[in-house]
């Protein structure tokens, strides 16, 4: 009996083991064999359900055709802001629209081809949350990205770039900057304000929409259906850019900083800031209606056009600061290429000269610190106050291997001579000529050096920009 019981148990166990092994083999083949024709990866299932044909892979470098501009304007201010937009807009090359609050009046028609095509924003007043909004006007601006996305003309778009109509773009620098990033991933690119009070009132980690910010297509694709819900969550927000940043933060997207985007929350003369621009490509300038003309003896419109003359020749160096020294005269020279040049009648280290002269004021008073960067005070000390020159013209020389930019004295400095031993007055210098390489774009973040060329007996200073030598001390 015992032997017969043991035999049956062994047979039953053997059958059970064989059956279990067969089941496990089938499960392994079905679930874990990646070569099985019937198996489909979960991510592939998601791709099949949600095809994304508009997000182009990174086979081709980003160019201007991949950027769609979403500009925001209104019919009341358009006549004064139109020249700023037209200074950089390239008909038949730039993509996008300017979204207006109402149809342009007859005097604006026919709409010029030199301006972006206009569109009318969708009616935000029909939203249930509209009456609850702290600043209903901002809902129109906030939803302009949604309106642009819903137009459907998004084939090949990699980036949506949002900005106000009083913002000037430098397109080559914009494209070079966006090309660093993978548009198939979620990116929110921009810059905070220069003014501490602005960031305190709104946010230090928010892109200011007037100056402009860029959203990758894949991010807009996810953001667009949620924008009305975002208004429901943040009816107390007072600005469209704050709404955008709040909505993106809820999606887990943080701001990627690009220092060349300038909100210009400043008043008065911003030449001190532009004359000490950091070594990064200048991408945008905003708020031209709130500041003095950036060139003397010109109105705001002509001053912008004058700057764009230099931008058309070499945007990679535009406004970026280069410092060199004339040891024979004990002079320090600061060049803001395409914008200005300064001569100081003493040797001042670069660590000091790279701080902007505080020629400007914050847009709103508050306790110090006032700015998000270090500044130098304007002084009447002849050893510390510069002789100031502004860009007169920029042109390529024969053979296109060199660029010549010329800077003309603004006015006599009307200060005495620096009395340090060995110093000489720079009062006799009328113009500064700067020679730069026309064949090589300046690399972002890279500092250039310069030499003062022989100028004995001349009232013109000649300077040659060059690469810094390894280990060269700029002091």
Automatic annotation (TrEMBL):
Gene3D superfamilies in alphabetical order: 3.90.550.50
Pfam families reported for this sequence: DUF604
InterPro entries linked to this entry: DUF604
PANTHER family: FRINGE-RELATED (PTHR10811)
Protein known as: Uncharacterized protein
Organism: Hibiscus syriacus
